[in-house]
Amino acid sequence: MSVISPPIFIFDAYGTLLDVHAAIARCRAEAGPEADRLSAIWRTKQLEYSWTLTLAGHYVDFWTLTERALDYALALVPSVDKGLKTRLLEAYFKLDAFPDALPALRALKAKGHKTGTLSNGSPDMLKGAVDAAGLTSDLDAVLSVDVLKMFKPRPEVYGLVTECFKCTPSDVTFVSSNRWDVMGATAFGFRALWINRAKMPDEYPEFPPKQVLADLSALAALS
Ligand code: 2OP
Fold it and tell me: Where does 22-93 sit in CATH, by number?
């Protein structure tokens, strides 16, 4: 299957450009043997809160949800020192990008594509992480759901992209490592690529990705 590459490439942020497990990686030695379990629970709860609140018609910003999810994870995994909370949150605010993120953005920019990110992240945390990761100058737009007070995968959120770039959904290639986000983007009419770094099984059969890629380095080969 060939990749169709409309001119605008929009990336999910957390888990796609930014490594959500980079925070625990910075404290791994102190966190002990259950460090990875803690990080997985942290991420799962953070997402769960965003979806359940949106379903209930409420909104709490993603940074607050990130802190609450960490509190929950620390309570559930008592072997990890609760004193690491501040360091973990500071690290999350300035997450590392995946090593292939910047080269992929640069390759797309060199080919004349517009690029951006659309994230559930609140504006401050998104700016903090994108700046710290050195991605800012290679992104034409950094879009947060916060203006709408609802989270992906609500269709209104994907509409922020078409509004920002004054384009139609078919002009957009949406890139995410989160299969649920690929579902939302596909349902909205974007051509979505799934970055399946973790080799997870496929889901959401009604809303398949246009293509599955192992990582962002494959994007550089798109024309
Ligand atoms: C995002 O950046 C939460 O990964 C999700 O929107």
Answer: 1.10.150.240
pLDDT, one tens digit per residue, over 41-59 is 999 999 999 999 999 999 9
11 CB under 6 A from ligand 1?
no
Domains of the chain, by residue range, sit at 8-19+95-222, 22-93
Write down the pTM of the prediction.
Answer: 0.95
Distance of CA 124 from the midpoint of ligand 1 (Å): 14
- What is the SS3 string spanning 60-129? CCHHHHHHHHHHHHHHHCCCCCHHHHHHHHHHHHCCCECCCHHHHHHHHHHCCCEEEEEECCCHHHHHHH
- Is domain 8-19+95-222 in CATH 3.90.226.10, yes or no? no
The reply to whether ligand 1 has any atom less than 6 angstroms from the CB of 119 is: yes
133 lines ligand 1 (CB under 6 A): no
